TrEMBL record:
Coiled coil: none
Pfam family of the protein (one): ETF_alpha
Source organism of this protein record: Anaerobutyricum hallii
InterPro entries cross-referenced by the UniProt entry: DHS-like_NAD/FAD-binding_dom (IPR029035), ETF_a/FixB (IPR001308), ETF_asu_C (IPR014731)
Full protein name: Electron transfer flavoprotein large subunit
Gene (name only): etfA_3
Length: 310
């Protein structure tokens, strides 16, 4: 069996990410199984000094590539695809960060293959092989077939308990990741982060109900009313917004005078990030969406029919 692990990190988080993934592998497979595997870690990080030691199994191959500011997503995905085609990995694991999970979604879509999200464990026997999926904020687990899912994102609450020390022989990936040549305020292709956007008086927060075809309308609407755009975890994972604009427990909290929530169901983890807003307006086609319980004003309908731009 061969495994590829994709990790995005910085100096303060890299060791934790490697340790968390190693903890998952040690829990999912026996030591004998791990020793027989080909395991490649691909580390995407800003230019920095690489750690001399990490907590990971000793038979792991460590590859790294330095990311420029405003790194181009397509260049990163091309590297992942090229190495997968060369090595034909049985499984590709993406790390625990939202940024890593968002790339897993993009990669699975481009490769037209199944994706298993929030995996925190596995069960392997002679007759049964399943991934253990973390659902409902970690309170419930669900078993899904291993054979149907080869692209995996790991649950963010995986305990980083692996304590064996490894001294990586770092190997550089001989590819230069491109930067975006220009910056705009909203387009997802350029991933611009406007400093202080969280303090805006008007913020539009999009959820899973907004797709890439509807996003340009949100952009036009935001410009028309002079509002910033942020999103739920699902909107970030779907590639519409950078992780820095994620709202909720695992993202940012905002308190604008006007918060317009479009296409978000209203899970508790998300609502925590907008509850301090002076006025919340929700637009959702599902009349039973939880978000209406927290909104000051609610509009039942599809946002593309509700929003008008001039």
């Amino acid at each position: 069996m061969s495994i590829s692990v994709i990790i995005f990190g910085e100096k303060t988080t890299l060791n934790h990410e490697i340790k968390a993934v190693s903890s998952f592998l040690a829990d999912a497979f026996t030591e004998k199984q791990l020793l027989k595997m080909k395991i490649d870690f691909f580390i995407f990080i800003p230019k920095q000094q690489l750690p001399k030691k990490v907590n990971a199994p000793k038979n792991i191959n460590f590859y790294y590539i330095f990311l420029p500011e405003n790194a181009d997503d397509t260049s990163i995905l091309d590297v992942i695809k090229d190495y997968n085609r060369i090595n034909a990995y049985d499984y590709i694991f993406f790390g625990t960060t939202v940024y890593a999970r968002s790339f897993a979604v993009k990669y699975a879509i481009q490769e037209k293959t199944h994706l298993a999200t929030n995996i925190k464990g596995s069960f392997f026997s002679e007759t049964v092989k399943t991934w253990e999926k973390d659902i409902f904020l970690g309170n419930i687990s669900k078993a899904i077939p291993v054979t149907n899912h080869r692209i995996i994102t790991l649950a963010k609450n995986i305990p980083a308990t692996y304590d064996e020390v490894c001294y990586p022989a770092w190997k550089a990936i001989p590819v230069e990741i491109q930067s975006n040549d220009y910056i705009t305020a909203y387009t997802k292709e350029n991933k611009n982060i406007v400093v202080g956007w969280e303090q805006a008086e008007k913020i539009i927060v999009i959820g899973n109900g907004v797709d890439k075809n509807g996003y340009p309308l949100i952009e036009q609407f935001a410009k028309q009313i002079n509002a910033e755009i942020a999103g739920t975890r699902r909107a970030v994972e779907n590639g519409l917004l950078p992780v820095e604009r994620m709202i909720g427990i695992s993202g940012k909290s905002i308190s604008p005078k006007l918060c317009i929530v479009i296409g978000a169901s209203g899970l508790a983890a998300f609502v925590k990030g907008i509850e301090k807003s002076e006025c919340i307006v929700s637009i959702n086609s599902d009349k039973d969406a939880l978000i209406f319980k927290y909104a000051d004003y609610g509009i039942i309908g599809h946002y593309q029919e509700v929003i008008t731009v001039t």
